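DM from R.C. (forwarded with permission)

"hey, sorry to bug you on a friday — could you get me a structure for this? deadline for the figure draft is monday and I only need the backbone to look sensible"
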Amino acid sequence: MTTYEKIEKFHHLIDESNNIVFFGGAGVSTESGIPDFRSKDGLYNQKYDYPPEEILSHTFFLKHTEEFYKFYKDKLNSLKYEPNITHIKLAELERKGKLKAVITQNIDGLHQKAGSKLVYELHRKCFKKLLYEMS
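My reply, with the result:
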């Protein structure tokens, strides 16, 4: 099957479906400029004084608060990013009643910024808990 035929088949599946759930992660937001964690240019492969998974821990926050906020501001603050075509098209599918939910590992808010209403952010609860424990 050619790429064109695969795309046509995909479009047909969407046209015929009215109960779609999208599951995504960092790959959706990298097009908006947000780095992922594991790719060759991802956060795990950049040089820091501490590993990112350690920087994002409660213990690290308590011991190195300034360094935590520096990392957060530089790498995790998504306010400067805009939704890309994927976020926008998913929101369009939701408005048409085809897409029932977005399930994402991202906590950048770009799905909501694009207009999606029913978004489940798998890591949001963990992140909120961390921020709550830090206050």
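R.C.: lifesaver. The beta strands are 20-24, 99-104, 119-121.
me: no worries. The CA atoms of residues 107 and 124 lie 6 Å apart.
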